[in-house]
Design a protein that fits this description.
The complex is a heterodimer of chains A (769) and B (152).
Chain A: E1 29-31, E2 40-45, E3 54-60, E4 63-69, H1 82-87, E5 101-104, E6 107-110, H2 113-125, E7 132-136, H3 142-156, E8 161-163, H4 165-168, H5 170-180, H6 191-194, E9 197-201, H7 205-208, H8 210-220, E10 227-231, H9 237-244, E11 248-250, H10 257-270, H11 276-282, E12 283-284, H12 286-293, H13 298-305, H14 309-321, E13 325-329, H15 331-334, H16 339-353, E14 362-365, H17 372-378, H18 393-403, H19 419-428, E15 433-437, H20 441-444, H21 448-455, E16 461-466, E17 478-481, E18 490-493, E19 498-502, H22 515-526, H23 542-553, H24 565-568, E20 574-575, H25 617-622, E21 629-630, E22 649-654, H26 670-675, E23 681-683, H27 685-691, E24 698-702, E25 707-714, E26 721-725, E27 761-767
Parallel strand pairs in A: 7-8, 7-15, 9-10, 9-13, 10-11, 12-21, 13-14, 15-16, 16-17, 22-26, 23-25
Antiparallel strand pairs in A: 1-4, 2-3, 3-4, 5-6, 5-17, 18-19, 19-20, 22-27, 24-25, 24-27
Helix pairs in contact in A: 2-22, 3-22, 3-23, 5-16, 10-13, 10-14, 10-16, 13-14
Chain B: H1 3-27, H2 32-59, H3 66-74, H4 81-112, H5 116-150
The chains are: A alpha/beta (769), B mainly alpha (152).
C-alpha cells in the first residue's frame, strides 16, 4: 500500500512493467479513522476529474471517513490521485446548504421545499417553453441527466438545455461526430500498456488526470519506453517527459494548433506514411485533405506557430514510423481557436495510418469532468439522447414512441441551443427562467463581468441547485440544497466509456435532496403527461431511471442494455456498448474499421469546419459514407483576438493537479488548500525581465474586458504567453481581490463544437504594487 | 459576347456581398459568432473579387447597374434585435444566392468558351459561396424560433 504524501508525490510510487503486460495493482487509501473502526465500505468512483477512478467509501457512524481505490477496476487498478484521496469526502460537513432559500428584499431566507418548489412551478407555468433555459453540469449522474433531458425535451419542449460540459467536452464529441459519424470514445486506457508512441495534444495529463499519468509513467519507467510527444505552450512535467523518452515537446503559440496539425498531416503524406489501402477502403475525403494541407510545409508551420521546423518533422516521423500510436486530446485544443478542426486532424492522423481499433492504437478525445460523457449520451448538453440525430426524422420518431409524446413536442427544428447562445438569450431577455444545477458559471464562464450582469438581470428568474452557496447561488431567486457524491445513488461513465455505479454511503445533510428527486418533484408539480394522459416520467428511483435509459440507448452506439446495477457491483466498471450478447462490454470501438456514418445511424450530418455551416441530409447521403470515416480539414485562420500594442501578450488559462473546477470541494480540503492556496500568474523569464517583474511580485493581468491580480511565477511558459489557473473564484476570498482568470477571457467560441475559447486572450501585464 | 457583362455583374455582386458581410458583422458584434464569421466570409467574397481580376482583363468588364439595384432592394442597411439579426442574415442569404447563381451562369459560359482557368476559378469560388449559404441557413434556422416567438 502506498502511504506517501500525494501532495508532494502527486503520482505515487512507480510500478514499472513491460509493454503488453497488465498495469500492476497499487491500492491507495486515505482514512480519517483507524481501519478497524470503519463500519462499512460503499462502492463508488471518484468525481474529481474525467478519469473516474473506482473507489470504496469508508463509513463510520453515518459519516464518510475515508476512501480506498478498487484494485479490481480496469480504470485505476487501485490507485487514487491527490484530489480523490484528499477531497472526496473532506468537504462533506463544511458550509453545506441544508434547506431551500428564497430571495426577498432583504436577501436569501430559509424556506420549505413546498414553498420553494411552488415558487419555481408558478414562475415556470407563466412562461413559454422557449423562455426556459437549463444550464447543467459535468457532475450529475446519468439518471439525473436523462430525467432532466426528458423533462426538457418531452415535458416542456425547450431546446435550451446545455451545461458547463460545453466548456470542457464539447469538442471531443463534435470531432468524433465529424470524423466517425457519432460520438463514442474510440480508444481504451489499456492502449497505454501496448503503445510505442504517445501523443498528447493540448493535454497536460500529469495535472489533469493524475492517475492516468501514473499509468503512463509506469510504461516510461519500464523496459520499452514509448516515445512521448507533447503539444503545449507551457513547460510542464508532462512536457519534460517528452525529452526524456526521445519524443518532442512542441510549444506552439496559443491559437495556432490547426496550423501545426495541418503541418503534421502534410509531413505524413509527404513522407509516404499513409496506408493507402486502408484510406481507400475506410475513409472519404483524402484528396480534399491533401489539398487542404498542401501549403503547410514545416517552414511555413514553424513561422505561424513559433516552433522549430525540425521538431515538426521529428514529431511527424515518430507518428509515421511507430508501430502503435495512442493519441489523447484535451483543453489545449478544445478550448482554443479552431478547436474542432484541430481535434479532427488528430483523428485524421490515425486514419491515414489505419491506427485505430487495435491494441495500442487509438484516439482518446478526452473529457475534463467526471460525468461529462453522460450529458453527451443522455441529451442534457444540447444533443438528443442516445446519440440521436436531430435532423433525422426517424430518430425523432424513435424518441416520440419511447416517451409516448407527439414528435412535434420534441424540439428538433435546429441543433439544440448551445451554452454560449443560451447565455446570450438570457442577456437579451428572451430566456428569463434559468435553472442552474451543480455548476458555478459565475466563476467558470468566460468574461465574468458580463456573466455577473446577466445573472443580475431584471426580470430573470434564477434557480440554483447546489451543495454549497456558490458565487452563482448568491445571485439566485431560489436556491435548492442538493445531495452530493456519497449522499445519493447513480451511475456515471468516464472518458473511456467505462460505467461505474456510485452507491449512497450516507444521508444528505439537513433537508438536502438528490438532484434526481428535485427534478422528479418538478416534473410531478408541472404535471407533465404523455399522449395518453399518463405521467410522462414513470420512474422514481435511480435504478428505475437507469432501466428507462437502457431502453433509450438500446440499439444505439452507446448501448447500455446489457448493464444492470447488480452487474456493476462487486467487480470492475464496464465499458459500453454492453448488450445481453456482450455482457462484458467493449474495450475499444471500431476493431473492423466500420464507423457509424451510415445516414440512418449517424448522430450528425456534419459541418463545414471553418464556419460550422451544417451539411444537409441530402448532401450527406450523396457522399455515400456507408461505414467509412470522414477525413475533414480546414485552413488555419488568425484567431479572433490577437496581440496589439495595447495588449501585447496572449493569456491562456488552465488547471492545477490539486484543484477541481471552482474548488467547491477541493478548496474545502485542508491538504489541497495548503498545497495550492491561491491564484498565480505565470510569465516567461524574458517577458518578466522586460516588465521589471520578479518572482512573487503581485501583477495585474488585464484585457479589454476585465482584469485579475496574483503573484508572478516566472519561467514555465513560452515568451509572449501568460498562464493563469482558472480555479480561484471568490467564495473563500478574504480581501475580495480579483482572482478569477475568467475576468479577462473573451466571449468567442468554436464554430462547430461551440466550445468557448479560454486559451487566446490578448492581455497586458503590469506590476500592481 | 456578353460574358463581360456577367463578369461585371459578378464583380459588383461579390463587392456588395463582401461589404454587406462586413456591415452585418460590425453591427451585430454582440453576437460574437456572427461578428467573427461575417468577417471571415466577407474576406472570402473580397478574395473572389481579386480572383476575377485576370478574367476581367481577358474578357473586359461591362458594368450594369443590376447588382447595385439588387443591393438597394435587398440590403439597405442593418437592423437591431433578434428579428433584426434574422432579417440581416436573410438579406445576406439573398445576396449570396444571387452571387451563387451568377457563378453558375459564368461557369456555363466558361465551359462553352472553353476556358479551363475560368472554370477552375468558378469551381473554387462557388464552393466558398455554398459555404456562405450553408452557414447563413444554419444560423437563420437557429435564430428563427427564439426571434419570432419570445424575443423581447
Amino acid at each position: 500500500m502506498d502511504s506517501a504524501d500525494r501532495v508532494e508525490n502527486v503520482w505515487g510510487a512507480r510500478t514499472p512493467h513491460e509493454r503488453g503486460t497488465a498495469w500492476p495493482v497499487r491500492v491507495d487509501q486515505e482514512l480519517a479513522v483507524a481501519e478497524a473502526e470503519v463500519d462499512r465500505w460503499v462502492q463508488s468512483a471518484c468525481v474529481l476529474c474525467s478519469n473516474g477512478c473506482a473507489c470504496d467509501i469508508a463509513v463510520k457512524d453515518g459519516r464518510m471517513v475515508g476512501v480506498r481505490g478498487r484494485a479490481v477496476d480496469r480504470i485505476n487498478h487501485g490507485r487514487l490521485g491527490p484530489k480523490g484521496l484528499y477531497a472526496s469526502w473532506q468537504w462533506s460537513d463544511q458550509d453545506r446548504l441544508t434547506q431551500p432559500l428564497i430571495r426577498t428584499a432583504e436577501g436569501l431566507r430559509p424556506a420549505s421545499w413546498d414553498e420553494a418548489m411552488d415558487r419555481i412551478v408558478e414562475e415556470s407555468k407563466k412562461r413559454h417553453p422557449l423562455q426556459h433555459g437549463f444550464y447543467t453540469s459535468g457532475q450529475l449522474f446519468l439518471e439525473e441527466y436523462y430525467t432532466l433531458g426528458v423533462i426538457g425535451k418531452a415535458g416542456l419542449g425547450t431546446p435550451h438545455m446545455d451545461g458547463n460540459t460545453r466548456l470542457c467536452t464539447a469538442t471531443a464529441g463534435a470531432s468524433l461526430k465529424e470524423t466517425f459519424g457519432s460520438d463514442g470514445q474510440p480508444g481504451s486506457y489499456e492502449d497505454i500498456e501496448s503503445c510505442d508512441a504517445l501523443f498528447l495534444f493540448g493535454h497536460n495529463l500529469a495535472a489533469t488526470q493524475t492517475v492516468l499519468w501514473a499509468r503512463v509513467l509506469d510504461r516510461v519507467e519500464g523496459p520499452d519506453t514509448p516515445a512521448i510527444v507533447v503539444v503545449d505552450p507551457r513547460d510542464t512535467p508532462t512536457a519534460r517527459m517528452a525529452e526524456r523518452t526521445g519524443g518532442v515537446h512542441l510549444a506552439p503559440l496559443p491559437g495556432t494548433n490547426l496550423a501545426l496539425m495541418n503541418g503534421l498531416i502534410h509531413e505524413l503524406i509527404e513522407h509516404g506514411h499513409v496506408d493507402e489501402e486502408y484510406v481507400a477502403r475506410h475513409t472519404i475525403g483524402y484528396d480534399e485533405l491533401v489539398a487542404a494541407v498542401a501549403a503547410y510545409e514545416p517552414k511555413q508551420v514553424a513561422e505561424i506557430c513559433g516552433v522549430n521546423a525540425v521538431d515538426v518533422q521529428r514529431a511527424a516521423e515518430i507518428f509515421g514510423t511507430s508501430e502503435r500510436v495512442l493519441s489523447t486530446v484535451l483543453q489545449g485544443f478544445y478550448q482554443s481557436h479552431q478547436a474542432t478542426a484541430a481535434a479532427c486532424q488528430v483523428n485524421n492522423l490515425h486514419l491515414l495510418r489505419g491506427l485505430i481499433g487495435k491494441p495500442g492504437c487509438g484516439v482518446l478525445q478526452m473529457n475534463g469532468q467526471p460525468t461529462a460523457e453522460n450529458t453527451r449520451e443522455c441529451g442534457a448538453d444540447g444533443d438528443l439522447p442516445g446519440f440521436r440525430n436531430w435532423a433525422n426524422q426517424h430518430h425523432i420518431d424513435e424518441l416520440s414512441t419511447l416517451w409516448n409524446v407527439d414528435p412535434l413536442k420534441i424540439p428538433h427544428w435546429a441543433p439544440p441551443t448551445h451554452a454560449m447562445q443560451l447565455w446570450r438569450y438570457v442577456e437579451q431577455g428572451s430566456i428569463d427562467f434559468l435553472w442552474i444545477s451543480a455548476t458555478n458559471p459565475a466563476v467558470s464562464l468566460p468574461e465574468l463581468p458580463r456573466i455577473r450582469d446577466i445573472l443580475d438581470r431584471d426580470g430573470l428568474f434564477l434557480v440554483v441547485q447546489d451543495g454549497f452557496l456558490t458565487e452563482t447561488a448568491e445571485h439566485a431567486d431560489v436556491v435548492l440544497p442538493a445531495a452530493l457524491w456519497g449522499e445519493k445513488q447513480g451511475t456515471f461513465t468516464n472518458a473511456s466509456r467505462t460505467v461505474h455505479l456510485s452507491d449512497q454511503a450516507v444521508d444528505p445533510p439537513g433537508e438536502a435532496r438528490s438532484d434526481l428527486d428535485i427534478f422528479l418533484d418538478y416534473a410531478r408539480r408541472m404535471d407533465f403527461r404523455d399522449k395518453d394522459g399518463q405521467p410522462l416520467i414513470g420512474w422514481s428511483t435511480p435504478e428505475e431511471a437507469f432501466e428507462a435509459w437502457k431502453e433509450c440507448s438500446r440499439g444505439r452506439p452507446c448501448d447500455y442494455s446489457g448493464l444492470t446495477y447488480d452487474a456493476l457491483r462487486g467487480g470492475s466498471g464496464i465499458p459500453w456498448p454492453c448488450t445481453d450478447d456482450n455482457p462484458e462490454g467493449t474495450d475499444r470501438l471500431y476493431p473492423d474499421s466500420v464507423f457509424p456514418t451510415d445516414s440512418y445511424v449517424c448522430e450528425d450530418f456534419g459541418h463545414d469546419l471553418l464556419t460550422g455551416g451544417s451539411t444537409t441530409p441530402e448532401q450527406y447521403k450523396a457522399t455515400e459514407p456507408a461505414g467509412r470515416a470522414f477525413l475533414k480539414a480546414a485552413t488555419f485562420q488568425q484567431p479572433p483576438e490577437w496581440i496589439s500594442s495595447g495588449y501585447p501578450l496572449i493569456a491562456t488559462t488552465g488547471r492545477s493537479p490539486y484543484h477541481f473546477h471552482t474548488r467547491t470541494k477541493t478548496g474545502r480540503s485542508r491538504k489541497l488548500r495548503q498545497a495550492e492556496p491561491s491564484v498565480w500568474v505565470e510569465l516567461s523569464a524574458a517577458d518578466a525581465a522586460d516588465l521589471g517583474i520578479a518572482e512573487g511580485d503581485r501583477v495585474r493581468v488585464e484585457s479589454e474586458r476585465g482584469w485579475m491580480e496574483g503573484p508572478a511565477r516566472i519561467g514555465r511558459v513560452r515568451p509572449g504567453v501568460v498562464f493563469v489557473p482558472f480555479h480561484f473564484g471568490y467564495w473563500d476570498s478574504t480581501d475580495r481581490g480579483r482572482t478569477a482568470a475568467n475576468e479577462f477571457t473573451l466571449t468567442e467560441w468554436d464554430p462547430v463544437s461551440k466550445q468557448p475559447l479560454y486559451k487566446v486572450a490578448a492581455v497586458r501585464v503590469r506590476p500592481s504594487g | 459576347m456578353h460574358l463581360s457583362t456577367y463578369l461585371g455583374l459578378l464583380h459588383s455582386a461579390e463587392n456588395s456581398l463582401a461589404e454587406a458581410f462586413g456591415q452585418v458583422g460590425r453591427h451585430h458584434a454582440d453576437e460574437p459568432d456572427v461578428e467573427h464569421l461575417c468577417q471571415t466570409l466577407g474576406e472570402k467574397a473580397a478574395g473572389h473579387v481579386e480572383s476575377l481580376g485576370p478574367f476581367l482583363a481577358r474578357y473586359g468588364e461591362h458594368r450594369e447597374d443590376e447588382p447595385d439595384r439588387l443591393r438597394a432592394a435587398e440590403f439597405s442597411g442593418t437592423r437591431s434585435g433578434g428579428v433584426g439579426l434574422l432579417r440581416d442574415l436573410q438579406d445576406l442569404y439573398a445576396l449570396a444566392s444571387f452571387v451563387d447563381v451568377t457563378w453558375t451562369v459564368v461557369g456555363q459560359a466558361a465551359q462553352g468558351v472553353p476556358d479551363a482557368d475560368l472554370l477552375k476559378t468558378v469551381q473554387n469560388c462557388q464552393t466558398d459561396t455554398r459555404t456562405q449559404l450553408s452557414w447563413l441557413q444554419t444560423r437563420i434556422k437557429q435564430a428563427a424560433p427564439q426571434a419570432l416567438i419570445v424575443a423581447k
